[in-house]
Write a structure and sequence with these properties.
The complex is a heterodimer of chains A (about 200) and B (about 425). By secondary structure, chain A is an alpha/beta fold. Chain A has a single domain, classed as Aconitase, domain 4 (Alpha-Beta Barrel), CATH 3.20.19. Chain A has eight helices and seven strands, in the order βααβαβαβαβββααα. A seven-stranded mixed β-sheet of chain A has the order 4-3-2-1-5-6-7. In chain A, strand 3, helix 4 and strand 4 form a beta-alpha-beta unit. Chain B has a five-stranded parallel β-sheet with strand order 13-12-11-14-15. In chain B, helix 4 packs parallel to helix 6, helix 11 crosses helix 13 and helix 11 packs parallel to helix 14. Classes of the chains: A alpha/beta (about 200), B alpha/beta (about 425). At the A-B interface, helix 4 and helix 7 of A face helix 1 and helix 3 of B.
Amino acid sequence: MEKLSLLDAVALPIARANVDTDQIVPARYLQKPRSAAFGSFLFRDLRFREDGSEVPGFVLNQAPYRSARIVVAQRNFGCGSSREHAVWALYDYGIRVVIAPSFGDIFAANAAKNGLLTIALPDAAVSSLIALLQRTPGLHLRVDLPAQRVALPGGTDFPFEIGAYLKNCLLEGLDELDYTLSQMARIEAFEHSYRY
Amino acid sequence: MLRQRKLAPRVPARAFATPDHYVPTANRDLATIADAEKRSMADALRTDSASAGIRFFGLDDPRQGIVHVVGPEQGLSQPGMLIVCGDSHTSTHGALGALAFGIGATEVAHVLATQTLWQRKPKTLRIVIDGQQAAGVSAKDIILAVIAHIGAAGATGHAIEYAGAAIEALSMEGRLTVCNMSIEAGARAGIIAPDDTTFAYLEQRPFAPTGAAWDEALARWRTLTSDADARFDREVHIDINSLAPMVTWGNSPEDALPITARIPDPADAPSAERREAISRTLDYMGLTPGAALNSVKIDRAFIGSCTNGRLEDLEAAAAVVRGRKVAPHVEAWVVPGSGLVKEAAQARGLHRVFEEAGFQWRHAGCSMCLGTNGDQVPPGQRSASTTNRNFVGRQGPGSRTHLMSPAMVAAAALSGHLTDVRELLAR
């Protein structure tokens, strides 16, 4: 898994709450293998018309935002279906950080397994960030994982919380399965001793 | 993922598989799946299960069906278990007093490889539901009312325990419906403490313990209740005495109202953000602010899914449909949740009730809930559906979904528009 530590990049404002994983990646792409490039399926039906032409009004199609690597969205981002493809679509597009007041739990867990950092910030902070990004297309945010801070150019800082285990996995690009497999002796010992 | 790392499932006896999302419901023939990638997924499930020694119910097995119908039905899902599956509606099995939740593909691989999963302990939310279900009101209406009350993110980060007289009064199938939609409130899981209803449901099921093992299990299961003085991070109380049948109007399961209500007006919204969201939703859904919900014309009626695809659901719908006819402009389907539900329904003649009324009686699968098998609602068409999600494009691009109970879908199919089923039951 790719390491993540500092990211200074264009941020994409999604001024909607409850963006569900069906919007992030429609069901008709779920049979594709991981090796497929999911970036083109990201927000597919918001981004493209049926004939494949771009929807000009959709924020990701507007020039300054196209190179975004950070998404800032309203509450409950990634709610709905457990499809991990939603994370793959964001990741393959180039997104590495999503900031929102809250996330669908399963989406957040899937993100953690794929090197995509989800940052929960208070409602008011997110609303002001979205408004700023809408006013200033192409504006960069700087995400500092070691310091647990999201910074604006000009100095405003938003501190965020993250569990130590997850933080370490992201910083080191650690694969969780490898770690668990290294613990098999302890797991087996527990299974033998546990009387349910 | 496992093959890439030269790993095999560590404890295959603790897994089972059944194809549901991609299977055709017009027949039982995988070869009719047009899309080669989808066909190969269904094939892979069979061959991978066989080589790993994982129990598999395929299309040639009457036990096949939607996994969240099959698990409880087979007695595979039991109190006190930790159950995971690569599907968000795994919360369903919490109705049996299991801790059950959905996970993504990577975590599925992790569980198969290690028989473990890393978890953070969720917060707890107790939802106490009191009062009595009036005629025409069902478990589906209860959970839609709960989600409308706490919101689509109302339980994020929390495991819900459903308690109270109204929950205790529910049959196991009603409880499965309630727990199924916990995820639509953002919950990590939804649990109901096992009781005599649970034990009566489980006894004699194919994979339930028997003999001395049953007695031991029962003694253990009886201990699985919250302490009388247990403290929850949050508690919500709901009274259902005046609950009316619910329908959703929008693109989130939280957009639910009694059938007697009117479509919301964006002008009445409490904030600019909400006003914009409601306008956008009504535009997509082709609805007029202030119009009566019971006047909304439908094109499709769908009875099925892991939410409402069980025998009691079919019986509730059949009771409304019996002796009546589907409206001429409506295409109506019944998709039983499993082959066994289908057989049991046929043994009671329910298929004839539906077919005589003009419903299509089909084979088990997820079908029109999300349409990955091709069973879609065409663009611009409106469906009355016993499913669990009304997201934009859920049942097919441009589709317009209204969620409700089986009896309410039946009523809508007959009248051709969203309808208060209590009026039909009264006649």
